[in-house]
Write a structure and sequence with these properties.
Number of domains of chain B: 1
CATH topology of the largest domain in chain A: D-Maltodextrin-Binding Protein, domain 2
Distance between the termini of chain B: 46 Å
Oligomer: heterodimer
CATH class of the largest domain in chain A: Alpha Beta
Number of strands of chain B: 0
CATH architecture of chain B: Orthogonal Bundle
Mean pLDDT of chain B: 91
Order of helices and strands of chain A: HEHHEHEHEHEHEHEHEEHHE
Largest sheet of chain B: none
CATH superfamily of chain B: MetI-like
Strand content of chain B: under 5%
CATH topology of chain B: MetI-like fold
Strand content of chain A: 15-25%
Structural class of chain B: mainly alpha
Number of helices of chain B: 11
CATH class of chain B: Mainly Alpha
Shape of chain B: globular
Radius of gyration of chain B: 20 Å
Number of domains of chain A: 2
Chain lengths: 278, 231
């Protein structure tokens, strides 16, 4: 009798093994794109990529991580193309020869969000530096991404400009080490401030109590997104052809029009196309 | 509190409507965890049997090692495998990173020590007279080991449950090695992590309820099998 369960067990497992195998997975031309949580969580890629897949027959696998990790995956040759938002890191990446054909395809801007009561007086500030200074002086909680993402890099550069050093270790400075959405939730729970890209914040605005307090588009708070192919001379195995097709698509008239038409459920435009400006 | 209710309604809605995306995600989770458990078992159980039934130097140290590895953090396994599977790593040419096979590899490493450790315990718990009886009846060595493993079947099943439970529920390694690619490497747990990060708590919770329901079904089936074999 004892052998019966063993046989049944094997049957169950063999059923599980053969179930749901994506048959087309290997046959299709695939492209790996590392991108940031802001482009993925806002739904932009899910909106754009089917069009590209339809036009080219290339299936795009999106690996959504922070900018730091997205660039690292590209540097290691684990993806074919990367779409990020940290111009200083992108420049280092390109200068080191890891990438080719960099194009800035769209932008939004950073906003400072915080509790409606605004104990740090961010609403009244006339620049992002003054706003950050107000937060530091009031000792109100500030939730940092702390994950080497584009937003984190921007936030650090503002703190350096304001304080000369990073506020790391200060009791009011909390590093979440998480994506933008989770960081907004933490800021909400802590009644604190944080820096967010406008796209992700708009998408989240109905889920959190924190409000945008500082929305003054300036050079400092400008948030451009760049796409670049992994250099095939460094990583010969990459799908360079597919990567170039994706970059061309994003920068094309049609791709740019689609980016410009992309809105959240409230009708807010989340990204401004700008390939024609390069 | 309100989203708990929404989550429960959502979960039933997703199951009943056979939402194709949820269906794909669920099947992938089962396939990956099932494959990993089977592969860890076919290698782990024979090894565990040998370790349990033989005397050699360093035996207790080896068992301690397996017991310690049961507590391997999933992200550590993810990171370790990533460094091998990355194009920068020695196994990069296999192109396993960000594929379901990549996740399976990490899961095997997670399930293996658990299955080995629990199988050793199960074999040790078998009445030593079973071996003597089998041998005195003239059983071949192969038949003797089969007899012992059959005697230990409840423990072996517990080892399989635990291995399966650990890998189907883990997220750290699946996220690093699979990359949470929509329609390709997104498992229930990485989808939960994603929905949580998007602030879609109800949907995340609904997926959690589906995972628990599946675990319940798997356990229930095995429990029934155990009862049948006891009779």
């Amino acid at each position: 009798m004892a052998r019966k369960p063993v046989a049944a067990l094997l049957t169950v497992f063999s059923m599980v093994l053969t179930a749901g195998v994506p048959a087309s997975a290997a046959a299709q031309d695939r492209l790996k794109l590392s991108s940031t949580t802001s482009t993925d969580n806002t739904g932009l890629l899910v909106y754009l990529l089917p069009k590209f897949e339809e036009q080219t027959g290339i299936r795009v696998d999106v690996i959504a991580v922070g900018t730091g990790k997205a660039l690292k995956l590209a540097e290691n040759g684990d993806v074919d193309v990367t779409l990020v938002h940290a111009p200083s890191s992108e420049k280092r990446f390109m200068d080191a020869g890891f990438g080719v054909n960099h194009r800035t395809i769209m932008a939004n801007y950073f906003v400072i969000v915080g509790p409606e009561k605004d104990p740090a007086g961010v609403k009244a500030a006339d620049s992002a530096e003054v706003a950050f200074k107000g937060i530091a002086e009031s000792g109100s909680p500030f939730v940092s991404r702390g994950d080497n993402s584009g937003t984190h890099i921007k936030e650090q550069s503002i703190w350096k400009a304001v304080l000369g050093v990073l506020p790391t270790g200060k009791s009011w400075y909390l590093e979440s080490g998480k994506g933008m959405g989770e960081t907004l939730t933490i800021a909400d729970e802590k009644m604190g401030y944080t820096l967010s890209d406008s796209g992700t914040f708009m998408k989240y605005s109905d889920k959190v109590e924190v409000k945008t307090l500082f929305v003054k588009p300036s050079e400092l708070l400008y948030n451009p997104y760049g796409i670049m192919a992994v250099n095939p001379e460094k990583q010969p195995h990459v799908n360079y052809d597919g990567a170039m097709k994706l970059i061309s698509f994003m920068a094309s008239v049609e791709g740019q029009r689609m980016i410009g038409e992309f809105t959240d459920k409230f009708g807010n435009r989340l990204f401004t196309p700008l390939a024609d400006k390069n | 509190m309100e989203y708990l209710l929404t989550a429960i309604t959502d979960a039933f809605g997703l199951i009943l409507s056979l939402d194709p995306e949820v269906f794909t995600i669920t099947l992938l989770s089962l396939r990956v965890a099932g494959t990993a458990t089977v592969l860890a078992a076919v290698t782990g159980i024979p090894l565990a049997y040998l370790v349990a039934t033989r005397d050699f130097r360093g035996k207790s140290a080896l068992i301690t090692v397996f017991n310690t590895l049961m507590a391997l953090p999933t992200v550590v396994v993810g990171l370790f495998c990533y460094s091998f599977l990355s194009r920068k790593g020695p196994l990069g040419f296999l192109d396993l990173l960000f594929t379901p096979s990549g996740i399976i590899l990490g899961d095997i490493i997670l399930a293996f020590p658990l299955i080995v450790g629990l199988t050793i315990a199960a074999v040790n718990a078998v009445d030593p007279r079973a071996r003597i009886t089998a041998m005195s009846l003239g059983a071949s060595p192969r038949l003797v080991s089969l007899t012992i493993l059959i005697e230990a079947r409840f423990g072996l099943m517990a080892a399989l449950f635990n291995g399966f439970g650990r890998v189907v529920a883990e997220v750290g390694s699946a996220m690093m090695l699979g990359g949470n690619i929509r329609g390709y490497t997104r498992t229930i747990t990485t989808a939960i992590a994603l929905e949580t990060s998007k602030g879609e708590f109800a949907l995340g919770m609904a997926l959690g309820i589906i995972l628990l329901t599946l675990a319940l079904m798997v356990n229930f089936t095995f429990r029934r099998l155990q009862m049948t074999s006891q009779r």
